[in-house]
């Protein structure tokens, strides 16, 4: 087999009755567990809309600098390359750090929302100044998926510290409409 765009390409063939090599045919088989394509932390910024902070699947975790409000709520959205089911009990859990699956300060028992190839995980009571791991359990009955996310309120440049450079960057954007280039400076996610 050879890997091809997230699926296995299978080629079969062999020698036919006349001694000639027959290369046979090909088909693509979807893996039993679809591959995670992207993960984001999504927040709605008032009337400006929702903006996504990309959460890397490997390497250093991204820093979520936006406030989760009074109950420290966040939303992690995972996109796979094919439809998924989440069969774990619970479906998701915070496996490192302090936080809970749920919203409004209340646990929902680890329930997620699945729509085709997209899984939405609500988080609540996520403390500041930490890295959390959010684990999606038993995806398509075969594997767990873990997404790391650091939280440091006010770290608008994502360098791991809150200091004068964050203040300067935010001040330079004061009065601008919130957009994909500057949403990190809207730390309270109010849309301005």
Short description:
With 192 residues, the protein is mainly beta. It has one helix spanning 164-172, and strands at 2-4, 7-11, 14-15, 21-22, 26-29, 36-44, 50-54, 63-64, 74-80, 92-96, 100-103, 106-107, 113-115, 118-124, 130-139, 143-151. The termini are far apart.
Any descriptors?
single chain; 192 residues; mainly beta; seven-stranded antiparallel β-sheet; four-stranded mixed β-sheet; elongated; disordered N terminus
Describe this structure in words.
By secondary structure, this protein is mainly beta. It is about 5% helix and about 40% strand. The chain contains 1 helix and 16 strands. It has one helix spanning about 165-170; strands at about 1-5, 5-10, 15, 20, 25-30, 35-45, 50-55, 65, 75-80, 90-95, 100-105, 105, 115, 120-125, 130-140, 145-150. The strands form 4 sheets. Strands 6, 7, 9, 11, 12, 13 and 14 form a 7-stranded antiparallel β-sheet that branches. A hairpin with a 3-residue loop joins strand 15 and strand 16. It is elongated.
Instruction: Outline the low-pLDDT stretches.
Output: 1-12
**String of helices and strands:** EEEEEEEEEEEEEEEEH
The percentage of residues in β strands lies in 35-45%
Q: Characterize the largest beta sheet: strand count, sense, and whether it forms a barrel.
A: 7 strands, antiparallel
Helix/strand layout:
Layout: E1 2-4, E2 7-11, E3 14-15, E4 21-22, E5 26-29, E6 36-44, E7 50-54, E8 63-64, E9 74-80, E10 92-96, E11 100-103, E12 106-107, E13 113-115, E14 118-124, E15 130-139, E16 143-151, H1 164-172
Parallel strand pairs: 8-16
Antiparallel strand pairs: 1-2, 2-5, 3-4, 6-7, 6-9, 9-14, 10-15, 11-12, 11-14, 13-14, 15-16
